[in-house]
Amino acid sequence: MVHSDSSSFVRVGGMQLGSEQRHCQQHGSYTAYSHKPGIWSACEQCQDASDVQQRQASMQQQRQAQQAALWQKRLGRAAIPARFAERSLQNYRPTCAAAEQALRTCQRYAQEFDAVLKTGRSLIFCGSVGTGKTHLAVGIARHIMEAGKQAVMSSVLKAVRRIKESYRRDSPHTEAELIQEFVEPDLLILDEVGVQFGSETEKMLLFDIINGRYEVMKPSILISNLGLAELEHYIGTRAMDRLREGGGKAVVFDWESYRRVV
């Protein structure tokens, strides 16, 4: 609240200019000026504080807009299928003790991801259909992306097809450049391992991806409906050895399908 004391007016070029001593409860006495009848300038210190608040609010809005844009860019690059886009560690509902243990393993992995990056520790999710393997993998991806890291998800078949695009004569990319696309992300999730044909070329390309990430200490998560022995047959012993190094862990999803339970 502002209280006025005394005021005075002078005419300058046909305009009536006034000044008045006023009192601001927050900043004390100040001189107010009037260029129009009944309109007086506010306390300068109050005005300065208001300007600062407005600038801060504007900067906060800009930061939020930038963060939202970065998140959308990160999410787009992650290539998470729309069906799984809203999956998270928070909304996974375990149906048995083994599923609860799998959830805890994924929560620790996500929470300790900075440490994971120092060793390149990978995960292998294998086992029954409909048990939440993709849900938990996407949940880990969302957690680390919210922390500013980049995750990318792809089926093995899509990854192999993408790299094989370099074999065309008119391809603007080399094989090495397209392999590097899968090496760069902080976390790579390879889904549907075992759906591909398992040819030597595919094994070689898959090994190049896994080995490339292994060499730069970047973790991978492999998802398969196969058992561990069958999975090793598809990806090859060398690739499996890379995934096991640095504390790599296999999580076996061997409980009843969630889809049948619900």
UniProtKB/TrEMBL annotation:
This protein's superkingdom?
Bacteria
This entry's Gene Ontology molecular function terms read:
ATP binding
The protein's matches in CDD domains, at most eight in alphabetical order, are given as: AAA
User: Which segments of the protein form a coiled coil according to its record?
Assistant: none
Q: Which InterPro entries match?
A: AAA+_ATPase, IstB_ATP-bd, P-loop_NTPase
Stretches assigned to the AAA+ ATPase domain? 119-246
Q: Which GO terms describe its biological process?
A: DNA replication
Protein name as it appears in the record: DNA replication protein DnaC
Organism, scientific name: Undibacterium pigrum
